[in-house]
Amino acid sequence: MKKEYSVIIGGAAGQGSRKAGLIIAKLFNKLGYGIYIYEDYQSLIRGGHNFSQVTAAEGGSVNKKEKIDFLLALDKKTIERHKDKLKKGGVIFFNSDRIQEQGIGIAADKIVKELNGLPIMANIALIAGLAKGIGITWDVLEKILKEELGKEIEKNLSVAKKAYTEVLPPAGGTKIEKTKYAPGILMTGNEAIALGLKTAGLDIYFAYPMTPASSILHYLAARQKELGVLAVQSENEIAVASEAIGAAYAGKRSAVGTSGGGFALMTETVSLAAQAEIPFMAINSQRMGPATGVPTYGAQSDLLFTLNPGHGDFEKFIAAPSNAEESFYWSGKLLNLAWKYQTPAILLTDKDVSEGTFSIDKDIFKSVKKEKELIWSGKGEYQRYKITQSGLSPLAYPGTKNAVVKANSYEHIEAGISEEVDKQAIEAMQNKRLAKFALMQKEADAIGAVKIFGNKKSKTVVVAWGSTAVAAREAAEKLGIKMVQPILISPFPLKQMKKALNGASKIICAETNSTGQMATVLAGHGFKVDKKILKYDAQLFSTEELARLIKN
Amino acid sequence: MKKEYSVIIGGAAGQGSRKAGLIIAKLFNKLGYGIYIYEDYQSLIRGGHNFSQVTAAEGGSVNKKEKIDFLLALDKKTIERHKDKLKKGGVIFFNSDRIQEQGIGIAADKIVKELNGLPIMANIALIAGLAKGIGITWDVLEKILKEELGKEIEKNLSVAKKAYTEVLPPAGGTKIEKTKYAPGILMTGNEAIALGLKTAGLDIYFAYPMTPASSILHYLAARQKELGVLAVQSENEIAVASEAIGAAYAGKRSAVGTSGGGFALMTETVSLAAQAEIPFMAINSQRMGPATGVPTYGAQSDLLFTLNPGHGDFEKFIAAPSNAEESFYWSGKLLNLAWKYQTPAILLTDKDVSEGTFSIDKDIFKSVKKEKELIWSGKGEYQRYKITQSGLSPLAYPGTKNAVVKANSYEHIEAGISEEVDKQAIEAMQNKRLAKFALMQKEADAIGAVKIFGNKKSKTVVVAWGSTAVAAREAAEKLGIKMVQPILISPFPLKQMKKALNGASKIICAETNSTGQMATVLAGHGFKVDKKILKYDAQLFSTEELARLIKN
Amino acid sequence: MEKQTNNNLDTKSPNTWCPGCGNFGILTAFKQAVDEIIKNGFDKEKIVVVGDIGCNSKIADYLNLNSIVGLHGRSIATAEGVKLANSGLKVFVFIGDGAGLDEGVSHLVHAAKRNSNIKVILHNNRLFALTTGQFTAVSPKGLKSVSTPFGSIEEPINPLKLMLSSDAGFIARGYSAKLEQLKNLILAADKHKGFAFIEVLQPCVSFFNNIEFYNERVYEAENKNRTEAEALELINQWDYADAEKIPLGIIFQKQRPVFEEDILKLIVK
Amino acid sequence: MEKQTNNNLDTKSPNTWCPGCGNFGILTAFKQAVDEIIKNGFDKEKIVVVGDIGCNSKIADYLNLNSIVGLHGRSIATAEGVKLANSGLKVFVFIGDGAGLDEGVSHLVHAAKRNSNIKVILHNNRLFALTTGQFTAVSPKGLKSVSTPFGSIEEPINPLKLMLSSDAGFIARGYSAKLEQLKNLILAADKHKGFAFIEVLQPCVSFFNNIEFYNERVYEAENKNRTEAEALELINQWDYADAEKIPLGIIFQKQRPVFEEDILKLIVK
Ligand SMILES: Cc1ncc(C[n+]2csc(CCOP(=O)(O)OP(=O)(O)O)c2C)c(N)n1
Ligand SMILES: Cc1ncc(C[n+]2csc(CCOP(=O)(O)OP(=O)(O)O)c2C)c(N)n1
Ligand code: SF4
Ligand code: SF4
Ligand SMILES: [Mg+2]
Ligand SMILES: [Mg+2]
Q: For the complex shown, is ipTM > 0.95?
């Protein structure tokens, strides 16, 4: 059996549980385990209860589990909230200066105080205790700490060393073995998006902060020089979207990122991008709505909204990744497609992919490159909306010699001048765009839009997308059934879906929303969903829970 | 056979063709003909080419026709553009001071000049010529002119009298006979909306101007005192939507109106209304998009956008009227439903219903009354989001003794205070709303949501909605097939649709958009459309054209 | 600090502001002002709190008063709807600098311009606190934040000046650490007929702790009538960068026709 | 009037402005300015016109120059994107008072504040002309329009004052009937490094013909450096109601750090 471990570390906001979770994940990753970190926090800056749940498994992408092996408690609330998740034989590591509990107590506050450390360093003491407790050598721990803790590293190391020395591993306790796999790179979904966009040629990223998309902005802002990508925060989402349009018109690759409420403010611009045929790349990272909802928790309830993101008739690319690798690949792919087809493209991700941390294989970075858009040859008179057989009109950017580049949100003639009288011309321009939409459909059919996992011969199929897909994959493998994951959702990859669902006698669709939005999409394309599994308590499916719900 | 006549009157913007069209319509209406006026104009204030096409038919609602009986030309362009539409034996009435043509020339400029009239009065001279030419008595003409022309009525009457006297009816020409029907009331779709809302208790209408919704604002603004409805123009659509929410929270019935681009800016607020359970009534009057598109021309291409009008999971009422009577009824009905279910409701109309003029039966005014919403009993402690079996929590408004009314866009507990920690509470509040959504579905099933016309036994069914429904109705009657018109589209009236389409062997769906949005909706509910008839040249279907397309 | 009121103004909602946050002072001053308003005979039921989205707007959860919390940046427009619907209500808006000066600045400008009779209390902590501290329109140039790790390059706008140019009839500045004065400003805004704008300097201890900076510089400006030019001069004492002194108090006041009164005349028969 | 240029600036698009509309004057003055810009050696291909939606923005159709016409109220933000993408372009925004001061006022304020190097020409006809004449933020109180048949009750905002308070570095007023001066203002705005705002008084002959009113009152203000207070005084000569005189010319000018220059430094290695 695949080896797999789950660890929760929790505390109040400000106690550093998130950082600690990342360090623990790196320890496991170093030993060759695949990683997923689920982050749980509220919309507040101090206090409350935050926790990170690290799942580490031999090989592949992993999902959050119901039961855990180790619990690290920076405060009492952590024990109260998570003790019942411990497996039989699971161990609690706790700050014995604050908590009385059975398990491995570490006098974290005392150690920190003795060594004149900062209060937050208690989390390092706990990590060191865990490392010792599960048989990780000091060398490995030291290396990871050095990588992760730039500031105050000496003090942190001495805290760690002391805790490491003091803790005695439990008798007969688990010792984590190295696996045969090489360590991956740990990265959140949002970081992968930033890099995917950059790799496909992003020049400027525009955003107005909104959880859970904000960290794309933060990541890029911190690396502007290194990556050569401008990261611009503007006065509101409408400005953001309009600026992205202006920049694309002027010849730069731009993208924007937001969550549902901010995306709502951009819908008028999505329609503009379609009409003016200006590439527009948006990240919509879902959180639990409607409206402000539960802003730091996940949900997959913006699918139908995102699929119909503006007034008028138009096609667009929409893809929903389930992990960091897919986030990287599809953000890059969509950026290229937006420019290739001069069209809106939307990466529809969700909180637990955006802010979750995954181990990825660095080969994935080779899967994206900047693909050049269709540029005007320079011959003849330039017409922004030249009617061609393919429906694609070559681009030119302002500054191009002998080109007058006229982009227009009104219906227009080939030269880009408004047209409202000549009804044939109006129809012809729509036909040009319809031809392009047909090409986009072909592209969707040709691309690897749908993934299949589990028992490919099973007639029971669970369909899941985005963050839920990982749980569904694992559950399907466990139950010996088939799992189908649509990633590109618009244009809908009908042929691939037909193939994937061919012969299915029972289609189950699992998602974290309350109405079954993917099931609705499937119905629209002729696939009858026999059973909907819906979860809307602001939590990600654990693999066990989903498996149970599939079976029942 | 039913008697039916079509008249076009055209000229440059500023020449008064629209007013003239209305007067002509009133002449026919007076004789008992049902009326539809199609208005065609561009996005400019002077010049260009405007025309009104009056269709007058014995009984019932009527659609624009391909061929016309009479053409009234205020300028030359009118003849160039419309001459080919004349039926054999059709007659042109023209301003002989500007145009040389075969038909009935009226020295309109000369007459106006002689009588010291304003240049625009040439349109009255032409109308008088038409009246004489088709055998309408001077009395009838005089009465209508007096009703319609408040200002400068004496001068207008003398112009009319002179033209009426000078014109000689064509030998063997048509004489319009009185029908057995009583005259109706002429009203545009937008006027009917204004009155429907008012009748259902509207207190405040908020808007930012946008064609083709603006005339709701104008109509209400002009009648504020008379109707007791405030008509408020605000700084932008986001303000408009937010103000409507604020007003509804504070206990007044509010509504907003806009077109696709403005509606896009309101989508975030629609989601808010759903989450905070604040009634929100919006009119979205479609025009040709995407983006600015062809702003003064019609299309039905916002259906899917309007059906998915915000982030998160929620239900909403959406209805699409095809004429003024339905506009009146459904705007009133939706306002009542928005308050009954504390939910968003959207009247999805389109330019040729909004700005088209229809004759309506005044009995329709009795079909709407204000239905009181569910109000708190005053007993116990007030909780805005009390969990009840029905899912409906009684309303109280600020100012109510002993009630603290807390509305919230965050997920919340019953008292309206934000909740992000207790996952059961979050799920419970969603379940409360889901219960309400189920009730809304029941309401949709119980209401007359789907209309059936034509040959009810035919296995060939044409489905059409909004402005296209009138053409489809007439075409179906002509072809002896069945016609089905869904009016309430959300919650989708599945049972009624099943009944209406029961036994159909061929389903045809006609609409003025380029992708078949209603066909997509039908597919989503399990109805396979066999043939889509799509028109996207910014024109309304004429009955003949649609009939041809159905047959071929 | 939160329990000193005698009108049952508290709720059971746990308070999740950071210890030491300036928002506590605003909450206390407001509760004291409400106590006084109620003492003077106004019905508690007719007070409405309109919250925005941000740390500041959690205040709605902490007040046992009618409240509506809507969308980020839209509280002012929402409040205008409330007031228009029932002009017998007293309407207080609590909004952040990000919401009021970035996302929703159009509503701030227009509410002032049309002189809607609502009272806007802008919690100016000079950044988007709830989303972890990004710069806003009033952040000092050079602010290092998660979205501007190398320092923001934009110069701040002066919200009082913006209000003056938008014809606001009541413009004041308070400080969350000066409770008594803040309470009095809220009461004065309440008495003023028409739109009132109170900027409250509100240190965010987690992301931009400028308590010292303010403590050293704030002073109470003379309470007197000022011309527009005089108000401008006073406002210009501090341009949201460094300064010797920062005036607090009522900066400008002028009586203008009230929007709701005038518009309601249109339907009175 | 439209054919006097020597740089092939005209298109085949039929002009659908009403005869006598002030927009013609703006078109002519702009073409003359462009002629001069080109004569001085700047490439025509590097000029970009950003249109909004309204009568004013039809200008994009009438100019044989690069152009982008986007959404109502969003032209300024769009233009900022254009400029940021390629700061070698000259970017001129044509926008109406409705778009600039109602729908999109947030972008106007913020573009001025951050000093984006774009040139905004606001066609101020003091109403929403293309949608048949409803009142805007700068309509005179009492304007009878289709949405205010009994007279608008709101007092107008003063856009120059709003720009001054938003820290705009170049603020000017022109008049569509004064071609030479308007051309010079456009050229001065072009020379100014940073954000420039030109309000153009533009009579709408169809809905609000105030040609006489303007002709009797406009005068050319002295061309000199002004302090903020002096500029305010000059601006206050006319509050968009009645007045004895209406100043034209450059009202205020100040050099500020240019947004695009500063932000681009962040990625220069
Ligand atoms: C449309 C939209 N955009 C972005 C957000 C995310 N958001 C929530 S609070 C906030 C910033 C709040 O800043 P401010 O108004 O200054 O309040 P503070 O937290 O500083 O009190 C943002 C950007 C949102 N909720 N809605
Ligand atoms: C989002 C949106 N709202 C409303 C409109 C309708 N609209 C088109 S032009 C216009 C007004 C234009 O007024 P202004 O900007 O002053 O330009 P003008 O026509 O006076 O030159 C409006 C409201 C629109 N196109 N988009
Ligand atoms: S983050 Fe800042 S503003 Fe928000 S509660 Fe903490 S101290 Fe207050
Ligand atoms: S309506 Fe007014 S602004 Fe528009 S073109 Fe006519 S005169 Fe000019
Ligand atoms: Mg703030
Ligand atoms: Mg205007």
A: yes
